[in-house]
Amino acid sequence: MSADQAGRTPKGKMMGVKVYMLDDQVQTFNVPQKCQGVILYNEVSHRLQLLEADYFDLEYLDEKGICCWLDHEKPLLKQVSAKDPRFRFAVKFYTPDPGLLEEEYTRYLFALQVKRDLASGDIPCSENTAALLASYIVQAELGDFLEEEYVDHTYLSNFKFFKNQSEDLELKIMEYHQGHIGQSPAEADFNLLDTARKVELYGIRMHEAKDHEGVPLTLAVAHMGVLVFQNQTKINTFSWAKIRKLSFKRKKFLIKLHPEGYLVGYSKHSDTASKIPTGYYKDTVEFYFDTRNECKNFWKKCIEHHAFFRCHIVKKLPRNRTRVVSRGSSFRYSGRTQKQLVEYVRENYVKRPAFERSTSARSIASRSYGANKSNTSTLNSNYGHNSTSSGSHILEQSPKETRDTPSVASTRLVEKAEVHDDSSQSASAGSLSEKSPRSQRTKAAVDNTYDSPPSTNKQMVDRKMSAPVFSQLHHPEIEEHELSRSSEVGNIPEILEEDEERTRHPRFRSPAPDYQNISEVAEAMREEAGVRERPTFTTGVQPERSEPIISSPKENGHVSPLPSYSDALEIEQQRSQVQSVTTVTTTTTTSSQRYIQDDDEPEPLPPPPPEPLQEVNSVSPSVARATKKYPADRAYYIAKELLMTERTYKKDLEVLTVWFKDTWFRNAASKEDVWPETLMHLMFSHLDPLYEQHCQFLREVEQRLAFWEGKSNAHLNGEYRRIGDVMLNNMEVLQLYINYIEKHEEILNEIQNAQRTNRKFETIYKEFEGQKVCYLPLNTFLLKPAQRLLHYQLILTRLLSHYNNDHNDYRDCYEALQKVKEITSRFEDQVRHLENLQKLVELQRDLVGIDNLVQPIREFIREGCLQKLSRKGYQQRMFFLFSDMLVYTSRTATPTLQFKVHGQLPLRGMIVEENGSKMDVANSFAIYGGNRCLMVAASTQEEKDKWIEDLVEAILKAKEQGDEKIKFQSLKSNASSEGLDSSDLQDDQTAALSGGEKQIQHRANTTMHVCWHRNTSVSIHDHYVAIENQLSGYLLRKFKNSNGWQKLWVVFTNFCLFFYKTFQDDFPLASLPLLGYSVTTPAESDNIHKDYVFKLQFKNHVYFFRAESEYTFERWMETMRSATQRQIQEPVSEL
User: DSSP states of 583-629 as a string?
Assistant: First the structure.
C-alpha cells in the first residue's frame, strides 16, 4: 500500500524510529508521530529500493513482550511507545519456492533472514543440513575455497552460524565449502534458499497454545495453512482448502472447517503422555492461548498468510470505526497477494543499481544503495525450479513499454536463462555421445537431496519477452489447487545467458575474407542461431528497446547488430552489408536484443514463399532483394513437416535411450541391485536399434531438405525436389518397429511388476518422471514408436494426394505407403490395445482407493468433470467411464494431487434418465446403478450429450458380456465415503518418496487435471484423433501489447502445446493445454494485419500464432481443432 492509499502524510511533530536491518545495520527514519504504520513501511521500502516489498515487514515487541507485525492501517503510536520506538526488518512471508523471487536483491535479503534464523535456532535441522546451509553462506561472503589460504577450519571461527558451533561442524562446513567452487554469490544465495525451504521448520514461528483437553501444543502458520506441533513434531495440518473460517474469542482460537470434515482430536498415546490424532470428526477446532493479545496476534498472522498465499486479490475495505457495541476485529490484510506481487514485478521491472553485500569479503557487482550502474557483468545463476509445486502458478500479465528509471513504480522484470555452449554439436547429430545427459551435479549429504547448479562464467544477453503462454485459470468453484506448468517457469523467455567466451569473441563481429558467397554467410549464421544454443530456461518479459536487430557484443561496450537466421526464411547477405546496420551503445553488461517487430505499415504475407519470420528494418533495399525464399511447392512443406516431426520424435526417443538409460547406468555404477536386468535388456535391445536407425534417417531428411531449399548446386537438378526415395530407403526399419510393437506389452507389464515388487525402482522411476526432460508420463514415450508409423502413413498420403501420377516422386511415395500400410493395418488393433493399456496404467497410478484397475478386457471410454448432488449441494467430481463400470472421484490435497475414489457403479443394469421432476439444475441427468442413484450435472448441453451417449453405448455393450467376464474392483475401506479426508491415504503413496519435491508427481497438463480445472471431458476417441494430429515446428507468437512476434519451437501432443526456443532444447520452457480453447482466425477488432495467423482463446486468455505458409497454417489449424472443444465453422480454404 502506498502513502497515497493510506491518506496524506500527517504534519506535526516528528520522531525518530530505529529499524534493525537484516544485515545488522541500524537505520533511523524520521516520521510524523501521528502517522499510520504504512508511512514507516513505505519509507523503509523506498530507502531499500525494494521492489518485492510485500514479502517483508517490520516487527516489534509490545508491552507484554509479544512479537507483533506492524499494522499498516493503525497509528504508529498505538503500537509502539514514542520514547524509543524500535522495529526489526524481517521476512514476513516465507515463499516455498525461491524461484518466485524475481530480484537478486530480494533473494539476498531472504538469504540474510535464513542466516539470522540459523544463528537464533529458529530453523532447527540436522548437523549435515546445518553445515550445508552454512557452507552456502560462506561461499556467498568469502567466495571460492582457497587451499593455500584456508589451511584448516579456523577461517570459519569468525562466523557465528549456530548457537553451539563446534569444530566438528566447522570441518563439515569446510568440506561442503570446497564443493561450491565457481558459484557466484547469487548462486550461493539461491542454493541456500533452495536447501532451507526443504527443512520442515523453514519459516515456522511457534506460538504456545493448548487444545480443548489442556494438552500443551504449539501452533504455526505457513503458506499451506495452520500447523499443529507437539514437542517440535508436526502432528496435524489444517490446509487453507479445508478451512472455512478463522476467528478468535478472547483467549480461544477457532478453526471452522468445511462441512466435509477434517481429522481432529487427540487421544492418549500407549506409552507416553503425548497425544495423537484419533480420527473422529468435528466441524470446529478450538485452541486456547494464555492471553487474548497472543490469541489475536496469531489470528492476525493467519489472516495475512491466507490472504497472501491463497487469495488472488484482497478487497480493500475501510476499517470499521469505533462503535458502541463492537462487532469484532476489523483487521484485514492490506498488501498485495503473492499472485498480485508476481504480476506487478513482471510488469514493472527495470535494471537497478548494483548493491554491495554488507559482509562480503570480495567485490560483488550486483547492486548498492543509490550506487551507479557498474560496468562489470551481472552475477546470475541457474534458477530453474519445478513449477509443478503446489501453490505455484502463473498469472496473465500485460507487458508494458517502459524505460530504465530508478523508481519502483516503473520497474520491469528481467529474467535469465542459461545457454550451454556446444559448438561441436550439429543439428543433425544423432550419436549418443552428443546427446548424453548433462553431467550430474554432486549431491550433498543433507536431509533432503539437493543439487547445486553448475558453475559457469556468463554474461547477460537480453531478449524480448512475451506474456506467459500458460495462463492461470481462475474458476470460482475450483479453489483448492491451480494448474501449473510442466516446466519450471512462468513465461516464454527471450533473455539468455551466454558464456563470456562467446560474447567476447563473436563469430560475425567483422567481415571475414574466407566467406566467398552469400549462402556460406547464411549457413554460418544458421549454425550460430540454431546449433550452438542449447538453453535451459526460466522466465522473462520484454526488454525496453524496440530496435528490431540481433546484436553481438563487441569491445568498448558497443554492440554490432546482425540480421538473424530464421528457420522459415534465411536472410542471406554479404558481410559488408551486415556492417551497415546501426550500432547500439550500452553502459552496462552487453546485451543483444533478439525479437521480431512489425513495420509501421505491415505488408501481408504472400502465399508461398512466406514473409521473413524476423525482419531487419535497417537493411538496405539491395540487401532485401538478395533475400532467398523457400520453394513454393506444397510438397516441400509436406516434406518439411516430416523433418520437423522427426526432430521431435528423436528428442522423445532420447528421453528413453539417453536420459532414462543414463539413470540406469548411474544406478548400476552405485552397485545397488535396483534395476531389473531383464527389463532393461528387453527395453533397450529394441529401442536402441530404432534410435540409431532414426538418427541416420533424420540426417538424410535434413540433407534432402537442404538441397531442396537450394543450399547447394544440387537444386539445379530436379531429382532432389522429392522425399519419397528417402522414405522408401528407410522402410528397412519396419522390421524393428514390428519387433518393438510385439514386445511393447511385455515391456509395460515388466515395468508394472518391477514397480510393485521393487520399492526402490518405483522411487527412481517416479523421480525420473519428475524431471523436466520427461515432460510426459514415461509410458507415453514408450508408445511413440508405435504411433510414428501412423504419422509416416499420413505424410505419404498427403504427398500422393498432391502429386500427379506422372510425378517423379509418386512411385517411391506409393511403394513406401503400401509398406507402411501393411504394418499399420496388421497392428492396428494391437496398437489400440496398447494405447488403452497405457491409459489404464496411468489412471491406476493417479487414482487412490481402488485396486487392480488394469484388467485385460477393461476399456477406457471417457473421463471428465461433472457436478454431483450430495447433502452439501452440487460438488465437483471427476468421473471415469470404463467398459464395465463408472467411477467417481475427487482430487486429494496431497502433494501428488491424485484423485481419491468415492464410489463405483457397475454398468450391468445401469439406467440413465435424462429428464426428471427433481432435476432443477441445467444440463442435469440421473444415473441409477444397483441400489444407488447419482444426480449429476454437466457444464454444457454438449457435455451432457457426450456423457449420455457414451453411457448408453457402454451399458448396451456391458449387457452382451457374460457374468464370468466381469471382475469388479475392491475399493479400499476408506474409498466409499465422501466425508473422509485423504490424509490417511498419504502414507502408502508417499512412503517411497524421500523428499518434498519428489512427491510432486502429478502433471498439470495431463487430461484428467485439465478436465478438472476446465470442467470438461475427453473420450478415448478424442485420444485417437489427437494421436493422428501430432505436429511440431516453428511458429511466431504475438506479444500481447505490441506488434512484435516471438519465434518459438512448438510441439503439439497429448492435447497440449509445448514451447521451446529451438528444436534442440532438452525440455519445454512452457506448456498450454488446449482442452476448452477455441481456435479461430483473428477478427477485425484484433487488429492483426498478417496472413496465416490463428487465434486461441479460453475465456479472457488470448494467444495469436503465425505460420510460415498456407500449408503450415492449415495443418496447425487442423491439429488445434482436434484438441479444442469449440471449433471454427468456416472451412480452412476460406481463411
Answer: PEE-SSS------EE--SSPPPPPSSSPPPSS--TTS-HHHHHT---
